[in-house]
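Below is how a single chain appears once it has passed through the pipeline. First comes the sequence as given, then the structure the pipeline wrote out for it. We keep one example in the README because the format questions we get most often are answered faster by looking than by reading.
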Amino acid sequence: MALNILDAATRELTLFAAIFLAIGGADDFVVDVLFLCNCLARRGKRRHYISAAPKGGAHRFAIFVPAWDESAVIAPMLRSMRSRWGNGAYRIYVGTYPNDPATIAAVLSLGADDSRVRLVIGARPGPTTKADCLNTLWAALERDEAAEGEAFTAVVLHDAEDVVHPQELAVYTGWIGTHGAVQLPVTPLCQPGSRLVSGHYLDEFAQSHGATLLVRQMLGASLPLAGVGCAIRCDVLRRIAAARGMPFDATSLTEDYELGLSLRALGTRCAFVRVPECPGGPPVAVRAYFPATISAAVRQKARWMAGIALAGWDRTGWGRAWDLGDHWMRMRDRRVTLAMPVLAIAYAALVCWGLSALCHALIGKLPPARDPLLEGLVALNLSLLGWRLTMRTALVTRLHGWREGCWAAPRMVVGNYIGLLAARRALWIYVGLLAGAPLRWDKTAHQFPSMAIDSPAAVA
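Resulting structure:
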């Protein structure tokens, strides 16, 4: 009797997981096909594309770097930024808090005579939210513009651990005149000793910034900003500020993602720009270390899930009616609310299959007859999984080389495990928000690559 119940449960779990995994796999397959079609369409124009950044006039950039408890990385990051960009038309605004003297001291150690670095100390103790810190920097920018009589063209967002690219401002200069916002690719660096956890970010960003965002742009859908490596025109930010008081929403867990959606609601033209730094070379991109431990990765991804897939759904809705391409992409952003439970059920079904086979072998009873529907669904899912692994390996290999490409398959399992843990934490975060819990800057500890300090071109 117990074995019959186990067999029935195994079948139902497998059928449920197989159906929804097939839907998700087909969704990913269509995105991959569109990406490949886009690549084929651009193939004959590749040489033109490399040198085809729109020409722009002189622009002045305000670099916003919010920093809470970043004393370990902020000074080397700023030294690297100044070394890579030289004496360009930019000013770096570093946002700190009065109860974080170590970070303040680290910024001051760069020298008070450097006009390129502007230390901004907020009025309230930290941590508040990242968006609140950005609003403090925006207020400082407006005070400086009023006092100096010289305006900034755009705000560039960076985190305290970012390794900027030497040509980054040149790309913004070429595109910001015709676009309200410009987003560059983010390319994670693999932390030494964390090939699986830190390395799985290489795979995910190779997929998202190497293919998915290009498809979103091709469809004319909204382009969520990454919060780093992006420039937003000041006149656009003033339009947002006029509507809600400040340009960055301090009540959001993922203000960068929502900002991209807000720009589309304003009718602002945005661009995801993947430009090679030289013919045949890697793209101009922002690089940084991502979390190296499972607990840190879970915390980071839980914030993304809670802000985008749960709270973001409540806050941003579906956008304009009949904007089907945008609706599809927003659905993909939010499907994690279903994907993680389905994945958990799929793993549970695998365990049940193993237990069932073992029990049948021990008592000498034949297993249940094969179900043609179930067999077909499993075969379909295996085919889609094979396609997904092939595409991810190819994307990672193209950007990071074949050695990293070989790690794509095992890191997918690690990514699923982290996602399952993060989904549980995200649900509790969301429940807390619904109950009125205050928002706090739930950041992880950061590291800055020593090679970026020793050699400005080492990771460019």
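The first strand starts at residue 61 and ends at 66.

See the next section for the split statistics.
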